[in-house]
Structure formats: C-alpha cells, structure tokens
Amino acid sequence: MNLINKRALRSFFIVFVPFLMILKQPDLGTALILIIIFISIVFFIGVDWKSLIIALAGVLILIPIGWHFLKDYQKDRLITFLIPKTIP
Predict the structure, then answer these.
(1) Could you report the per-residue pLDDT of 7-27, keeping only the tens digit for each?
(2) Cis omega before residue 18 (within 30°)?
(3) Could you give the angle at which helices 49-67 and 28-45 cross, rounded to 10 degrees?
C-alpha cells in the first residue's frame, strides 16, 4: 500500500468515528457534511481514480441498506431535496 492510500485510509478513520457519533444523534445534515469533507480530503491528497470509483461503487451499493435505518422525517427531507416540489 503506497503512502497516498495510507493517508486516505487514515483520514477515513478520522472522519468515520465522528460521522457515526453524529449520525446516532440523529443529525443527518452534519453527518453528510463530514462525508463531503472526507471526499475533498481524498481528492486533494491525490488518490487514483480507480480507487475512487471502487469506493463510490461500494457506497452506491450501501445506500439502499442505509435508507432503511433513516427516520421518516429524514427520508422526507432527502426526497424533498432531490425532487423539490414547485409551489403554485
């Protein structure tokens, strides 16, 4: 494992623990901000595209599983964010 992947793995564990703690509260918005920060860190340390694509595929596989752990109001907020309704 090269130095860049070690940095990415270290930053993953640094972000993952607070992510789980914040998600437990439940504060989905702040937890998602931490994920965006992690993606930025990984992008700027220079991880190769193949590793990023594999990680993205893993996340896409886990999204349906994670959906069932969300509360109803969190699901409603995400749906409203992704598909906003126009007010007549």
Answers:
(1) 777 777 888 888 888 888 878
(2) no
(3) 170
Which single residue is written with the structure tokens 């607070």?
18
In the structure encoding, which two tokens stand for residue 1, read together?
Answer: 């494992």
pTM beyond 0.85, yes or no: no
| Owner of token pair 């990984």 | 42
Give the pLDDT confidence of 48-86 residue by residue, as tens digits: 777 778 877 888 898 888 888 888 988 888 888 888 886
Please list, in sequence order, all residues whose beta carbon lies within 8 angstroms of the beta carbon of residue 46, skipping any fewer than 6 positions away. 4
CB 28 within 8 A of CB 66: no
Q: What is the Cα–Cα distance from 6 to 17, expressed in whole angstroms?
A: 17
